[in-house]
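Budget justification note: compute hours in this period were largely spent on complex prediction jobs such as the one shown. Inputs:
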Amino acid sequence: MSTLSTTESSDLRAKQLSKRGRIKWGRIGAYALLVVFAIIYLGPLLMLVNTSLKTLPDFMKSATALPTKLNFQNFADAWVKANFLRYLTNTLIYTVSATVIYLITAVFVAFPIARGYIKGAGALLTLYVIALFLPVALIPQFQLMLGLGLYNNPVGYVMLFLVNPIGIVILVNYIKTLPMDLDEAAAMDGCGYFRFVTSIVFPLIQPALATVAVLHAIGIWNELILPTIYLTNKNYYPITRGMIVFQGVYGSNWPTLAAAVLIMTLPMLVIFLVLQRYIVSGLTAGAVKG
Amino acid sequence: MFKRSSVLIGVIAMLATLLAACGSSTPAAPAGQAPAAETQAPAAAENVTLKVLIHQNPPMVDFMNTFNEQFQAKYPNITVDMAVVNANDLSTVTQTRLTANDVDVVDMFGFANAAQPYMKNVTAPNWQTLIDAGLLMDISDQPFIKNYDDAAIKDAGTYNGKVYQVNLGRVSYSGIYYNKDLFTANNVAVPTTWSELVAACATFKAANIPCMTAGGKDGWPIFVGAYGLIGAEYPDQAQLVEGLWTGSATWNDAKSLDMWTKMKTYAQDMMETGASGIAGDAAPGRFASGAVAMFPGGTWYASAIDAAQPSFKWGYIPFPGSDNADENKYLFGKYDQGWVVAGKTANKDAAMKYLTEFSDPANYQAFANAVGFIPTQPGATLSSPIGAEVAPYLANFRVGYEQYWVAPKGAGEFANPYASYFKPFGTFDDPQALADKVQADLQSGLDANK
Amino acid sequence: MNNYHFGRGRARLAPYLLLLPGFLFYLVIMLGPSVATGVYSFTDASGIQGTALHWIGFENYREFLFMGQASLDNYAALVRTLIFCFCVTTIQFTLGLVLAMLVNQRLKGVNIFRTIFFMPVILGAVIQGLIWSLFLYPLGGPLASLLGLFGMRSEFLGGQPNEAIAWVIFVQIWANLGVTMMIFIAGLQTIPGDLYEGAQIDGASPWQVFRNITWPLLTPNVNTNLLLNIIGSLQAWQLFLVLLGYRNGTQVLGYLIFAQGFGQTSGSVTSAFRQGYAAAASIVLFCLVLVIGLPVQYFLQRREEKILG
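Corresponding output:
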C-alpha cells in the first residue's frame, strides 16, 4: 500500500497494479480500514446530532434512543438565547484577523530562519522551540495586558493570539524544502526581499500555510478561558463565551447545548473545507519541480 | 500556477483587511470611550453602569435578569451590566476583574474555611487575601445588613470584626431525595435509621429497582451524598476538624472505622451499577426519570429535578447515618453564595442601592424561592417544595466539616472522608485499609508542618 | 551569511526589520509572562495586586517535590504523565501516518474521509469531552448498549483509574489524530511524483518504496509530528478536566498544575490564591518537557541533516 501523490504516477501505478491483479485487494483493504475509522469518528458526532434533536425529558429518559419527533426548538433556543449572530460575528473577526496577522508575521520570522538570512538563526529557532514547552502564564499575562491598557479591549484580545511557536516550527521545516536556487533566480531578476517573500514564497508554501492557519484558527475559535478573563464587555463576547448559558452547575440542558455546539462548529467546518482544498491541491509538488 | 495562488492570497488578504477594519472600527471605539465614561459618571451623578458578576446557575440567572429590570425601572439612571461565568471560573474572574477595577458587585462562594489558631502553616483563603489587599469593601454600616440574621452575618460575612459579605442562603447537602411513587408501590416506609435504609435498599434491589443514583463520575457528589454518615459519627464538625489537626481524632479510630464500613455499603450496595459514569449535572435528570428509588444530594438539585420532569413526585429526608433515629435529625450544609462589593468601586452609591433593593424582604423572598436556598433573612421562608421538606429540620441545621477544613500542606490526596474512595468509584475495597491510608495521608501533612 | 542574495548595505536589513513584529509579539506576549512565572515561583505571590510579596527561595519547590505524601502523589502524577505521553505519541504517530497514506491515494471519496478524521480537531476539548461523555454514558449509552449485547459492561470514564486513563488516551488520540494526519499529508504532497515513477520502473516493492522514498522524504514532517505529539501529551490537561474531573489516581502533571493554580482540586472546597506555588509547579513541568523534548529535538534535527543534507 504505497503512497502516490500526483495524477500521472498514480495512473501509471494503477495500470501496473491492475495488470498484476492485486489492485482490487489493496483498494478493498484500504476502504475497509477507512470505513472502520470513519465509524469511530462519526459515531460520537451522530450522537451529538441525535441529542440536539431531543427534548430534555426525552434525553433524560434515554440518552441513546432516537427522538420520538424531531425537536428543532433546541436550535431556535440556542440561536436566540446565546445571542449567536453577534457573538459569532465577533468570533469570526477575532479568528480571521488574528490568523491573518499571525501568518504574515510568522512567515517573515520563519523564512529568514530557514534560510539562515539573519545572524543567530539557529539560536532564534531554539528560542521558538523552547517556547513550545513554556508554561501557561495566565495571571502574569493578565497583569501585563492590564498594564498595557489592553484589558477588555478587542485589539488586546487579538494580540493574545499573535504568537504560536508551533506554526513557526512547521513553517521553518516546510520552507527548508524549497530549493535555494529559487532565491538566487529571483534576486537576479531584480526581485527585492519583501516582494520575493510575499509574491513567491507565500504561494509556494500554501500547504504549510493552510495547515498552520487551520490549527491556529481552531485554537482561537474554541478558546474558552481567555475571553472569560479578558473580555468583560458583552459586545465583545465570542461565541464560546455565550455558550455558558446552557451549562449549569447542578443540571445542564444537554440537548440545547448540543444544538449550540453544532451551530458553533458549522462555520469552522466550512472554513476547514475551503482551506483543505488548497492543502490537497498538490500545487506545490509541481511548483517546486518547475 | 502562480496566478491561481496569488488570486487566493489576494482574496484572503482582502477579506482580512475588511474584517480587521470592521474589528477595529466597531468594537474598538467604545473600548476607547469606556474608561472616560466611567470616570465621569460618579462626578456627574448621572448615568451609572453597575457591573455585576455572578456564576452560572440557571434559576438564579433567570431571577437576576428579572430583578435587574425591576431595579433599573426604579433607578433609571443606573444600568446594570451583569456578567455570568461558570462556577469553576468565578474565583479567577473575580480576582482579575477586581484587580482591573472592572466590577462593582460580585457573587462570592465559600466565605468560610478561615485558618484557625491550631492550624499550622496554612495559606489564607482567597476571600481573606482579597480583603487584605483592599479589594473588598467594608459594608458593616449599611442598613441592609440588619435584614439578615446575625448568625449568617457573623459566620459567613465577618472578618476581623467588619462585615464584607451578605450571605444569601444556606444549602443542605446531607439529605436524600426519594421517589414517592416507588416507595408507595413497593410498600417501603421512609427510613429513619441506617438499618431501615439498608433494608429499604434490599427491598428495592429485590424488586429490580436500583436503590440510589448520584453523579459518581465527578466524585464529589458521592461523598457529598454520604455526608450524613460523617455527621452521624461526628455531630460537631468544627470540633472534628480541630481534633484531626490536634490528633484527638483520627480517620482510622473505631468511630471512623464504623463510618468507613457504612460508606462501603453505601458505595457498593446502595449505589446503582453504572453510577460511577453519571456526570454530576446529569444525576438529577436520572433520578427524575423515575427509574431510581433514591438520590442522595444537596437541596440545590431540587430545581434541576423539577426542570427535568415537572410532574415527578419526590420527598427529602436527612440521610439516616445512625441507628439511633434521634441522631439523624441533623441537616449538614453550608453557607452558599453572598454579595461582596469591590473595594475600589467608583459606583459605591449605586452598588449600595443595588444591595439594599436586593435585601428588601419581598425581593429576597423571591430570590430564595427561585434558587431554593434556606433563607438567611429571619422573615423569609422557603416556600418551594424543597423548603417544605427541609422545614422540620431547620432548627437542627449544622455547618459541615468541609466548611471548616483546611488541609495541612503536604497532606496526601486521600486525606478526606470521602465515600468515593471505595470501589467502583475509587480503588479501595477494605474499610480498614482505606481508613489507614486516609489517616496516613493526613498525618504526613501534619508531620511535615511540625 | 554570504548566501544572502537580496542586496547589501541597507537592503541587508530587510529580513531583520520584517522579522521584528513577529518576534516582538513573541517576546512580549509569550516569553515575558513565562519569565514572570519563573520569578513568581521563588515568591509567596498570591497573584492579587496589593498583597505583599516575599522572596522565599526554593520553598515552593521544596513543597512540591519533597513535602509529605503530597509530593509523593506528585511523583505518581509524573509517572502517569510519562505513560500517557508514551502511549499517545506512539499510537497517534503510527495511526496518523497510516491514515495519511491511505487518504493520500487516488481513491474515490478520500476527501470525505480526510474531513471526517479532522472533524474532532475543529471541536475543541470542551466539546470533545461532552461528546464522549455522552457516547460513553454507562447507563444505556451507545457503547454500553453495544457491550451489553455481548454481556459485558463497563463504567468507562468513571471506572477504575487505569481504565479511565485508557479512555482519555483514546479520546486524546481521537481528537488530535487529524492534525498528525494533516501534517503527514502536507509532507506526502511535496514528494515529487517522478520519484515514485522511477521506483516503479525499477520494480521496487511497496515496502521498498516506503522505506527508501516516502519515509526519508517525510523526515521534516516526522520531526514536527513527534515533537508536537510529545509536547502536546506532556502538557495535556483539558481532556482530563472535562472527561474525568479531579479524581485521585488519574491526574497528570498538567492537570495538577491547572487545578492547583485555579483552586479546583475538588468540587466544593474553597481554596487559596497561591500563584507562587502554582508557578513553581509549572516550572517543574516546563523542566520535564524540556528534558524530554530538547534531546528529542536535537536528535531529530541531526537525523534530518544527515538524511536531507
